[in-house]
Amino acid sequence: MVSVLVTGTNQGIGLGLVGQLAKRSYVEHIFATVRDPESSGVAELKKLASGNPSIHIIKLELNEASINVNSSFIGVLIVERGRRGETHPRVEGIGYLA
User: Fold this and answer.
1) Predicted TM-score of the model (pTM)
2) Burial class of 60 by CB neighbour count within 10 A (0 to 12, 13 to 18, 19+)
3) For residues 64, 66, 68 and 69, what is the CA-based torsion angle, rounded to 10 degrees?
4) Distance CA 72, CA 87 (A)
5) Which domains does the chain have, with CATH numbers?
6) What is the DSSP letter of 41?
7) How far apart are CA 26 and CA 61, in angstroms?
8) Which is more confidently placed, 55 or 93?
9) What pLDDT, on a 0 to 100 scale, did the predictor assign at position 18?
10) pLDDT of residue 57
11) Among candidates 13, 5, 37, 40, which has minimal Cα distance to 94?
12) How would DSSP label each residue in 8-24?
């Protein structure tokens, strides 16, 4: 069983990736990060998460304070699972505006 952290999951590749990972039996936890979990743009992700208890929506703004708080929480889970010899892939959803 693995845990996966995916950024930018409110739309596009990140959202699609969460949907695909949710179908995999070997994925125990999906940490789906978004800037604002309360925004209307997260509705599709919330719908997906409501039917799958392995999906955890986490607020993550790409600034130092937010990363420090959230990485501590996620880090504890990863370290604990790492002690059991399990792997944890990390997927980045990266985009740009031209």
Assistant:
1) 0.69
2) buried
3) 160
4) 18
5) 2-91 (3.40.50.720)
6) G
7) 28
8) 55
9) 93
10) 93
11) 13
12) -TTSHHHHHHHHHHHT-
Pair of tokens at residue 40: 């209307």
Residue type at 75 in one-letter notation: G
Residue 49's Cβ-side half-sphere holds a number of Cα atoms within 13 Å equal to 18
Region 85-90: mean pLDDT is: 55
Q: How far apart are CA 19 and CA 72, in angstroms?
A: 25
Tally of CB atoms within 10 A around 6? 22
Question: Could you tell me where the beta strands, DSSP code E, fall in 1-98?
Answer: 2-6, 27-34, 55-59, 90-91
What token pair was written down for 8?
């930018």
Supply 91's token pair: 């997927």
Over the stretch 21-71, which tens digit does the pLDDT of each residue have? 999 998 888 989 898 889 888 999 999 999 899 999 988 776 655 555 555
- Distance between CA atoms of 23 and 25, rounded to whole angstroms? 6
**Position 65: which residue type?**
A
